[in-house]
């Protein structure tokens, strides 16, 4: 029953993201687990495996644990600062943090957040299938999705799974 509910929620959330990706296929999926605690399941959807951010794709994350919007944004900013070389300026990070405020909500187990990468344009965000915001900033979009897709990600196994690569 729980698996069916999560699958239905996941399909509904992705269906809302699909408008910019037709036709899209599952590129890969995985989970983020640290020391046996699983935080979320992630799926990457695209018409083709995103190489070099040259095509639109959607990253869908279904949470297994509750997380506040504040924590989601702080973690994203910390990871962007860590991964980007050179790191963005404090002013840029503050602007990006502000841009993420409407994108995210407090999540509980079973909730899904979805980000759609739009090449040369920015990103569109959904919470449980509802559009929350669009950020028209290509540098932000690239830095945001690098959290999962850059070689320097904290979750290299998840990255490989999302990109459909064998380890």
Walk me through this protein's architecture:
It comes from Ralstonia insidiosa. There is one protein chain. Helix content is 37%, strand content 28%. The chain has a six-stranded antiparallel β-sheet, sandwiched between helices. With 167 residues, the protein is an alpha+beta fold. Helix 2 packs antiparallel against helix 3. The protein has five helices and six strands, in the order αβββααβββαα. The chain has helices at 2-17, 69-83, 90-100, 138-149, 156-162; strands at residues 25-34, 37-46, 57-63, 112-118, 122-127, 130-135. It has a single domain (22-163), classed as Chalcone isomerase (3-Layer(bba) Sandwich), CATH 3.50.70.10.
Counted up, domains total 1
What is the alpha-carbon Rg in Å?
Answer: 15 Å
CATH topology: Chalcone isomerase
Strand order of the biggest β-sheet: 1-2-3-4-5-6
Q: Spell the H/E element sequence.
A: HEEEHHEEEHH
The main β sheet shows up as:
6 strands, antiparallel
Keywords: Signal
Pfam families: Chalcone_3
Protein name: Chalcone isomerase domain-containing protein
Domain Chalcone isomerase: 54-164
